[in-house]
Amino acid sequence: MTLERLQARLGHVFGDPRLLQEALTHRSFGQPNNERFEFLGDSILNCVTAIALFERFSELREGELSRVRASLVRQDALHRIALALELGDCLRLGEGELKSGGSRRPSILADGLEAVFAAVFLDAGFGAAKGVIDRLYQPLLAEVDPLKPSKDAKTALQEWLQARRMPVPTYIMVQALGEAHAQEFEVACEIPKLGVRTLARGASRRIAEQQSAELALAAVRKK
């Protein structure tokens, strides 16, 4: 995947390619990196999805809109879009992250995509960023059913197991990585009866558990 192909998939050609390069630079690679871009991109994404839902679902109340938006901006949704873009092929990672599969890690891909949204905004303004996000989120928005309660991965996994009279999964904190101000947590989800053990990382233990549960849910559904 080249940066030219990535820009084609985004639907935006950068006037200042350095912004895209910084957005794709993980902190493990060095300075400057995409941490500040990620912060900005998260806010832009929340705003754009709020507008999209406000316009699309005129009957929904504030709480319902907030619930649906949360399902669209969480890590697994961003991860799904990043995979479709093949964003991992363009990320600049330190040697350690490369060896440990960082280009496929959901948290790194999700953060990188938010950083790219910020880069588009800095390059060409809010309208351009909104256009990119609207295009990328079109398939996810088409799937939204506001009447259907959204379930997080841990809840969905537990219900799947309980429906088959199996024990609930066990979540094990494997390790904490990085410095205190920028830690990542690695958590395992274990279902011994099915021989399933998944590992995932996140910026918090809760996020890591959810991501590990999502991987486990995908695994048990194949059995």
Structural write-up:
The protein has 223 residues and is mostly helical. It folds into 2 domains: 3-143, Ribonuclease iii, N-terminal Endonuclease Domain, Chain A (Orthogonal Bundle); 153-221, Double Stranded RNA Binding Domain. 58% of the residues lie in helices and 10% in strands. The chain has helices at 3-10, 17-23, 35-56, 62-73, 75-85, 95-99, 106-124, 126-143, 153-163, 205-221; strands spanning 170-177, 184-191, 196-202. Helix 3 packs across helix 4, helix 3 crosses helix 8 (126-143) and helix 7 crosses helix 8 (126-143). The longest helix is centred in the N-terminal third of the chain and has 22 residues, at 35-56. The chain is globular, with a radius of gyration of 18 Å. The model has no long low-confidence stretch (mean pLDDT 90).
